[in-house]
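Worked example

This section walks through a single chain of length 85. The input is the sequence exactly as stored; nothing has been trimmed or padded.
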Amino acid sequence: MATVRVRRLDPDVVERLKRRAAANHRSLESEIRQILAATAEDQMAAKLESFHDLAARLRRRTEGRKQTPSEVLVRKDRDSGHRVV
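Given that input, the structure is written out below as tokens.
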């Protein structure tokens, strides 16, 4: 586990965090840990949702178009003698 030090927090913020921790029956450290973990999870969920939205838009835009399977493209490239060094 990593250790993170946060300096120069506003005393009012610390007091609000202490009250929040007490209301959730946690220590201040545990409350801050939970807040950070939830925030990181929310960010990842938002990115995943954004990705799924983009994928859905791309599927709609290419619907009905003839698609070449990727394995066909890879085989064609390999058969051409093209090599990546």
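What to look for: The two ends are 39 Å apart (CA to CA).
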